[in-house]
Amino acid sequence: MALNRRSFLKAAGLTTLAGLGGHAAMELLAPGALDAAQPAKIGAFPEALIGKRWAMVIDSTKFTSMRLSQKCIDACHTAHNVPNIPGKQEVKWLWTDSFQRVFPDQRNEFLPVDIKHQPFLVLCNHCDNPPCVRVCPTGATFRREDGIVMMDMHRCIGCRYCMVGCPYGARSFNFRDPRPFIANINHRYTTRMMGVVEKCTFCEDRLARGLMPVCVEASEGALIFGDLGNQDSKVRKILRERFSLRRYPSLGTEPHVFYLI
Amino acid sequence: MYDGNKIIPGLIIFVGLVTFPFWSNIGRAAYERPELKLDAVETECVEPAEWMRAEHMRLLDDWRDLVVRDNMRLYVNQAGRSFDMSLTNTCLSSGCHANKAEFCDRCHATLAVSPSCWDCHVVPPTPIVEE
């Protein structure tokens, strides 16, 4: 049957009308019946903290002794099931080191004694230009829009390129099953398995629930966490007012952990 | 037939080996769906039970990618109920599947599959009661 242009347009118009009208009729006669067939919805928790660029400020003037640092480390490692393995196979998310080793660029023989012997907290710097992400062959580690450098343990094949790539030594490899080395397993968080690399995640799971990172909560105000993308945030205010250092800025990784000296 | 005294026993042995799965199964009990034990806290799963039975691994796989890669953690099912997309904190902790040995493991063991989920994901010892 040959269809001329006129009858085709008529038929198309009627079909469109029937389609639109049909939906409206369904809505009238059986409200919600069409919606019930909608797929499930996904999203973020309403209480989630959303940031443009997360960053941490470490007020090193408040970390004069090991007490507060250890408190933060313990809080972090307990919450994230980080195993306590002595020796070369140690796993760490948050730890301390001396000024000379944290800031080798600032080499200075005549440092004040208290700074020389002070423990400095170190963690993943969540770089803008993270070398670990660049070298990861599986995309297991990646940089989120909000600046957090994440690990997808499901994809990690344990090649340890990222550990070589990271200039801060922020990554640890699980040489063995970590579970026997965790004193009290936090049943709300996962452990890792043998053969994957792990590191600090800026507590992205807590941010998603509207909570601050564990170390920040334990730090008695000495760690400040916030959004650098927000002009009025606490971190921006502090960085405007006080002098801060970053680790190895000359490498161009743009680290986002700032040390107030 | 030349060499029939070698070929015929050889054929019989060959056919016997090839059909081994069939005759070794004679007299054994047929596959039965294992009896699963559910804690009677919830009556409904995240999605209909029939669908979950066949597709739970797909759902969990979607959840893991959404949570880890896309930072999406809230799942609203077709009935409009919200869930935290978490194996440990939702499925295993809610009191629904707190008893892994009598729920997850029974089917997995019968079907001889060993998912690696629990290498990392913690099985809570007792159901954690929601605050």
Mind telling me which CATH architecture of the largest domain in chain A this is? 2-Layer Sandwich
The percent range for strand residues of chain A is 5-15%
Biggest sheet layout of chain B: 2 strands, antiparallel
Order of helices and strands of chain A: HEEHEHHEHEEHEEHHEHEE
SSE ordering of chain B: HHHEEHH
Tally of helical runs of chain B: 5
The chain-level mean pLDDT of chain B equals 87
Q: pLDDT below 50 for ≥5 consecutive residues: which ranges of chain A?
A: none
Q: Label the structural class of chain A.
A: alpha+beta
* Assembly status: heterodimer
Largest sheet of chain A: 4 strands, mixed
Mean pLDDT of chain A: 91
Strand order of the largest sheet of chain B: 1-2
What does this 3D model show about the protein?
The complex is a heterodimer of chains A (261) and B (131). Chain A has helices at residues 5-29, 66-79, 99-102, 113-116, 131-135, 161-165, 204-207, 214-218, 234-241; strands spanning 41-43, 54-59, 94-97, 120-123, 141-143, 149-151, 172-173, 197-198, 223-227, 244-245, 257-260. Chain A has 261 residues and is of the alpha+beta class. In chain A, strands 9-2-11-10 form a four-stranded mixed β-sheet. Chain A has a two-stranded antiparallel ribbon with strand order 3-4. In chain A, strands 5-6 form a two-stranded antiparallel ribbon. In chain A, a hairpin with a 5-residue loop joins strand 5 and strand 6 (149-151). The model of chain A has no long low-confidence stretch (mean pLDDT 91). Chain B is built from five helices and two strands; from the N terminus they run αααββαα. Chain B has helices spanning 4-18, 20-25, 49-70, 87-92, 104-110; strands spanning 74-76, 82-84. Chain B has a two-stranded antiparallel sheet. Chain B has 131 residues and is mostly helical. Chain A binds chain B through residues 36, 38-45, 48, 81, 142, 144, 150, 152-154, 185-193, 204, 208-209, and chain B through 47, 64, 66, 68-69, 71-78, 85, 88-89, 93, 116, 119-122, 124-125, 128. Strand 1 (41-43) of chain A pairs antiparallel with strand 1 of chain B.
